[in-house]
Specification:
Layout lengths: L4 E5 L3 H12 L3 E6 L13 E4 L1 H10 L9 E4 L1 E7 L6 E7 L4 E5 H10 L5 E5 L1 E7 L7 E7 L5 E6 L1 E4 L6 H6 L6 E13 L7 H9 L6 E7 L2 E8 L3 E9 L11 E2 L3 H14 L2 H9 L4 E7 L7 E2 L4 E3 L14 H18 L7 H29 L51
Parallel strand pairs: 1-2, 1-12, 2-8, 5-14, 12-20
Antiparallel strand pairs: 3-7, 4-7, 5-6, 9-10, 10-11, 13-16, 13-18, 14-15, 15-16, 17-18, 19-20
Helix pairs in contact: 1-3, 1-8, 2-8, 5-7, 6-7, 8-9
The structure holds flavin-adenine dinucleotide.
The site of flavin-adenine dinucleotide has 29 residues, from helix 1, strand 2, strand 3, strand 9 and helix 8.
InterPro entries: DHP_3-monooxygenase (IPR053212), FAD-bd (IPR002938), FAD/NAD-bd_sf (IPR036188)
GO molecular function, one term: FAD binding
Pfam families: FAD_binding_3
């Protein structure tokens, strides 16, 4: 019997992580990705934080990952409060046992791609259109448009893995009514490049105001708003600033919004009012800041369909707000668990039992993490948290409740459970 084949829709972090894990279970993998090419490196995307569990899993796929220079420590999780009137700062909550690492999204993506095993084929510039799971076969047939030529191709496999992100079209075919839920705020984001400018006034002053940069994940809270600041490898500072407001209109399927010069100008002026002069200056001098509209979705009740032939992973499975630094970490753990489950059940004729185990292991974890990230975001933005007082958290008066701000309040903070080969009720065509 030949190798089993998985067709993965989406070749971002979740898709490439699945390619590693599923190939590791002895499968062949075909990835369909609409982008024309892999990330070239740190210039694509911005920064992300990896937990110890993800670092360990990724190091199995990428030799040297973690001991090379591609990540920086985030050993301290620090929440501070800035008084916008006086610009004075005070510490709210500090955790010195954080054990995360900071990386460029583009570096992680490039390295995941470079180290793919020979059993994986990535078809760049292939836009997934639809799939069929014919009743008379055990397999799935995916159709994709080749963007360069306009023609279509088919990819046939035993399993379709949907890693097509928070607006997943595969998910839509099973859950047409599921809508993403607007969080109530958007994030301005930027990456400040200080190569060759370490001793500039901007860098000297920002390091004075945030002296633990390079080892610390800073959350800076002001009244009903907060910013995030940390250092990335190769002389970059990554910042985000969350601003409450009505849901903006978005073009197409992207949650990233084009920022006009006028919007950037207004944002920079507002930064002077809210933040300390050092952070406002960093924001002012960052080239090409952009806006992410922040969404999540209520946790799904299942992650696989079609009698165990289609499965969701990554943001397709659990769109989440970014406050628990979960998206990438959940994607890595999804991929690792899926690979383990397929390996556990490799002797079965179909992946149905493997997917039952995957769903049973991952659903409770991701559901809790998505809801906790939602709550953490609302807390930090001073918005009422479900079922609580209208006023929301007020950073100017907060006392004991500041301990809730720490990242370690995230469920499964110390690591999510792995698959162990347990038998779970079959994911059947009855559901
Ligand atoms: C270019 C890029 C840059 C990013 N930068 C950052 C960052 O700096 N920091 C951060 O925290 N997160 C970033 N993210 C998001 C981050 O990757 C995810 O939040 C998380 O890692 C989960 O990844 P995912 O693979 O599930 O989803 P996503 O990263 O959203 O990937 C979904 C993938 O599916 C592909 N896709 C969608 N529809 C189709 C289709 N019909 N056919 C073929 N392919 C399809 C998309 O092109 C995309 O590559 C970025 C994502 C992208 C795509």
């Amino acid at each position: 019997m030949g190798k089993k084949v998985a067709v993965v829709v989406g070749g971002s972090v979740a898709g490439l992580a699945c390619a590693h894990a599923v190939a590791g279970a002895g499968w062949e993998v075909v990835v369909l990705e609409k982008a024309a090419a892999p990330a070239a490196g740190s210039g694509t995307g911005a920064g992300l934080g990896l937990d110890a569990q993800s670092m360990e899993i990724i190091s199995r796929w990428i030799p040297g990952w973690g001991i090379d220079a591609v990540t920086l420590p985030l050993a301290v999780d620090l929440n501070i409060a800035t008084d916008s009137a006086t610009k004075a700062a005070r510490t709210l909550a500090r955790d010195e046992d954080f054990k995360f690492r900071a990386a460029h999204w583009g570096d992680l993506h490039r390295r995941l791609h470079e180290e793919l095993p020979p059993a994986v084929t990535v078809l760049w510039g292939h836009q997934f259109l639809s799939f069929e799971a014919p009743d008379d076969t055990r397999g799935v047939v995916a159709t994709a448009r080749v963007l360069r030529t306009g023609g279509t191709v088919e990819a046939t496999g035993d399993l379709l893995i949907a890693a097509d992100g928070s607006t997943s079209s595969v998910r839509r075919s099973f859950l047409p009514d599921l809508k993403l839920r607007y969080s109530g705020y958007c994030a301005w984001r930027g990456v400040f490049d200080f190569s060759g400018k370490e001793s500039s006034d901007t860098m000297t002053s920002i390091r004075r105001a945030y002296p633990e940069l390079g080892n610390c994940l800073y959350f800076d809270l002001a009244y009903k708003t907060h910013a995030v600041l940390y250092e990335l490898p190769r002389s970059r500072l990554n910042w985000l600033w969350y601003i409450n407001g009505p849901e903006p209109e978005l073009a197409g399927n992207s949650v990233t919004m084009e920022a006009t010069d006028a919007m950037v100008g207004r944002m920079r002026n507002e930064a002077e009012r809210v933040w300390c002069p050092e952070l406002a200056r960093l924001v002012r001098e960052t080239a090409a800041p952009f806006v992410n509209v922040i969404y999540d979705a209520d946790p799904l009740r299942r992650l696989s369909w079609t009698g165990g032939r289609v499965v969701l992973v990554g943001d397709a499975a659990h769109p989440t707000t970014p406050h628990g630094l979960r998206s990438t970490n959940m994607s890595v753990m999804d991929a690792c668990t899926l690979g383990q489950c397929l390996a556990n059940w490799n002797s079965e004729p179909t992946p149905a039992r493997a997917l039952a185990e995957y769903e049973a292991v991952r659903l409770p974890v991701v559901a809790e993490q998505v809801l906790h990230a939602r709550q953490l975001g609302r807390l930090k933005q001073g918005l009422p948290v479900d079922g609580e007082a209208e006023d929301g958290f007020d950073v100017t008066t907060a006392k004991a409740e500041v301990l809730q701000l720490r990242q370690r309040t995230m469920p499964f903070f110390d690591g999510a459970p792995a698959a162990v080969g347990g038998d779970f009720p079959l994911v059947g065509s009855t559901r």
